[in-house]
Design a protein that fits this description.
Elements (H helix, E strand, L loop, with lengths): L5 H13 L23 H16 L6 H12 L12 E4 L4 E5 L7 E7 L18 H19 L3 H15 L8 H10 L4 E4 L5 E7 L5 H14 L3 E8 L5 E3 L1
Antiparallel strand pairs: 1-2, 3-5, 3-6, 4-5, 6-7
Helix pairs in contact: 1-2, 1-3, 2-3, 4-5
Length: 246
């Protein structure tokens, strides 16, 4: 329940099979406030919660690596949310961790909003990006930059990596007014800009410990709204707090 949660239903069946409980069943109810089709990871949240719930029903705990493999089998491509606050480089279509970065992301605040008039993106219908050799070389550099940002808990290094990655994504899944978002970030001296690689989301990254962060957040939110971006929300990442809609 509800019946359209087909990925969650498949995840439940796969988990039962993994636990050798194929003959067992039950009622699964999925309740979520996460918007679908924008890059928030709504389907992976449903699937991972389902896998954990089924395992818990049999008083069993599953490792994040096992949960991730089941999630990929259920939905073809999955985020790494089963690893919670561990920062990992994750192969989303194989369900494998390529690299553990050894810590969580540095504390940041992200002011997110929807581009492209908030149009939905069908992840399964979206063909995998075919990156050029130059882009692949850039990703190797970004991997090192991300590792360094996590090691030293440096939000600005993380923002630089995110911005370069977002610019590459712009050549494969363009976001309307992406340059506008970059301009807003520059105006407030933000750490950088990130995008959903399979959705409509854009986020501007701030150092959660920076002086004047509340004022910077308001300025970004007002500028994004004035530019026509939809559903502006502030997210705290590993710095306390939750989500606030502006």
């Amino acid at each position: 329940m509800p019946p359209e949660k087909t990925k969650a239903a498949k995840a439940a069946s796969l988990t039962l099979r993994h636990l050798n409980k194929d003959s067992r069943g039950g009622l699964l109810t999925v309740e979520s406030t996460i918007p679908v089709g924008h890059g928030y990871g709504s389907s992976t949240a449903d699937v991972v919660a389902t896998i954990r719930a089924v395992a818990d029903a049999f008083e069993t705990g599953l490792r994040p690596s096992v949960i991730s493999r089941l999630a990929v089998e259920a939905e073809q491509a999955s985020d790494a949310i089963a690893f919670e606050d561990q920062a990992v480089l994750f192969a989303q279509r194989e369900g494998l961790v390529i690299e553990h970065f050894g810590d969580a992301l540095p504390p940041i605040r992200v002011i997110g909003f929807k581009a492209n008039d908030g149009q939905l993106v069908d992840t399964l219908a979206l063909p995998p990006a075919r990156y050029s050799s130059e882009e692949i070389q850039t990703f190797s550099m970004l991997r090192g930059l991300a590792a360094r940002s996590i090691r030293f808990q440096d939000p600005r290094l993380l923002g630089q990596a995110a911005t370069l990655s977002a610019k590459i994504s712009q050549r494969h899944l363009p976001k309307a007014q992406f340059s506008t978002a970059l301009g807003i970030a520059e105006q407030v001296d933000a750490c950088g800009v990130q995008v959903a690689h399979s959705g409509s989301l854009i986020g501007i990254i701030l150092d959660a410990s920076a002086v004047g962060i509340a004022d910077a957040s308001r300025r970004i939110a007002h500028a994004a709204t004035a530019a026509g971006f939809k559903d502006v929300v502030v997210q705290w990442i590993y710095s306390g707090g939750g989500a606030v809609e502006i």
